[in-house]
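Worked problem 6 (solution included).
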Amino acid sequence: MDRVRAGRTVETIHPKEFEMAATTRKTKPASKSTKPVDRLDDAIGAAQDALKDLRGDLSRGRKVLVKDVDKTLKDARSNLRRVRGTLVDDLDEVGRKLTGRAKPKAAAKPKKPAAKPKPKAAAKPKAAAKPKAAAKPKRAK
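Solution. The predicted structure is:
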C-alpha cells in the first residue's frame, strides 16, 4: 500500500505491516476490577429511573416521600463516584486475600541509622568531692 500525501506517494508499506500496525496497541494491565462498582452504579441509576416512573402515579402526600428517596439516591450515587478508587482498591485486596495471592511487595527501603541521643543541657558543675577521712584504728587500752 502506498501512502499518499498531497497527491504524491510518500512511502510504500507492505500490506501485512500495515495490518499489524493497525491492530497493535498498548494497553494497561487490568489489575483493578471495577465491575462490582459499575454494577452498583447501574443499580442506583435503575432505581432512580423506576422512581421517576412511579412519581406520576402517586398522590401528593406520597410525592414528598418519593422526593426524599430520590435525594437519597442522588447522594448515594455522588458518594459512590467520590470514593470509587478507594472502594476498588479495597475490593481488590479482599479478592487477593480470598484467592490466597500475596500483595505485590514494594521495594525494600533502606534502614535509617539509630538516632543519636541529644546532648543534655549543661548542668551546674558539681563541687569536687572531699576525700573521706580514713578510719583511724582504735587504740587498745
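Discussion: The chain has a mean pLDDT of 72.
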